[in-house]
Give the backbone structure.
Amino acid sequence: MKYVEEYRDPVLAKQLLAEIREAVTRPWSLMEVCGGQTHTIVRQGIDDLLPAGLRMVHGPGCPVCVTPLELLDKACAIAAQPNVIFTSYGDMLRVPGSQTDLLSLKARGADVRIVYSPMDAVRIAVDAPDREVVFFAVGFETTAPANAMAVISAKDLGLQNFSVLVSHVLVPPAMTAILDDPECGIDAFLAAGHVCAVMGWREYEPIAEKYHTPIVVTGFEPLDLLEGILMAVRQLETGTAKVENQYIRAVHRLGNTHAQEAIKRVFSIIDRTWRGVGSIPDSGLTLAPEYAQFDAASRFKVDGIETAEHAACIAGAILRGTMLPTDCVAYGSGCTPRVPLGAPMVSSEGTCAAFFNAGRRRDAVTVGG
Amino acid sequence: MCLGIPGRVTSVVTVDGLLMGLVDFGGVRKDVCLSYLPETGIGDYVVVHVGFAISRLDEDEALRTLEIIRSMPGAFAQELDPAGYAGPAE
Ligand code: SF4
């Protein structure tokens, strides 16, 4: 059995696989939402070990990948302005915009700085009162509490030279949009453990019920994924559709309520465009009116940007789970992690990078998405 | 930046009204905000997202998760030492 010997507990892994095989009587499609889960599934070959007909579809769970092109272009336009210190998480620097990326701007002399935490950006603003410091606030519910605290601190400190370019996205509305798309045919979800560590899973209960779709909160270790898959399959085979928690060690139903309060205080919910997917209602966060003074998009007039994706890139279909990286003509030749044409090849959480890093080749893949 | 990294809290202090701590990620140490987990004490394992502790884990779980993140090319460096991360190797 391919790869199983490398698992932390190969005996348990084999047992879980046997139980999955025994439970499955019909074809099912399961979507894992988190990019860390995609990485584990592809690297450990979990998709190859599953019984025929049980298909893993890789979801849009890479924050770098779904940040809309327009926001990236805005980030570049702001970063190029004199007197600006543009700060960002490292993963965003190499993501291709329409014309350029932040790393190339930095090479050409723009003051673009990588920070570990948004609090580092606040500190830079305190230390450089005569410069405009902008932080690129992207990510899912996992980074929102940190970005909220940065804005709260900036307000408490009375900072006039700090602002955030916000492009936050929320997972549950994206799952709803996927279920609403007749092309997708997803039967069950493995929800992202770390997103649920922040938010809990109450929000998923109405989705499971309305769409009659099982949702299993799952970690991203190989054994977690096998167990999450087994739990989802058992629900499907018995006609059950509820939220279950595989990742009991780190996730509770209510999540982290302190973090949720901070998100609620600083942000309000808006419609958000997801790169490659399109606009999804109520799927993003923007600054609440009380904190609107920290909005970089209105502080720097950067509207009217024309966006253009690379012609070869099929990232949209990959993020929606309807195609695989190996279906892309540029995969591995024109597009590699070192010279990415599209966002899913940039971050280790991206599906294209996960495939490339696991050595999957275009011709080797027969099970299409 | 979406992956939480588990680490062990080695000190707890209050700075400018924020509960902060030093967290050890298998040898790499970082200042981390503990305000969202105010009950955290020295020796606890916490999952840290971009400088903020969000949830607690037991030690075994923390070490296993660390191992997986180390297996993702660049992920560990990208999360913890983003400024020093030189990009993917091929
Ligand atoms: S391989 Fe590159 S060009 Fe093809 S879909 Fe992925 S990111 Fe886009």
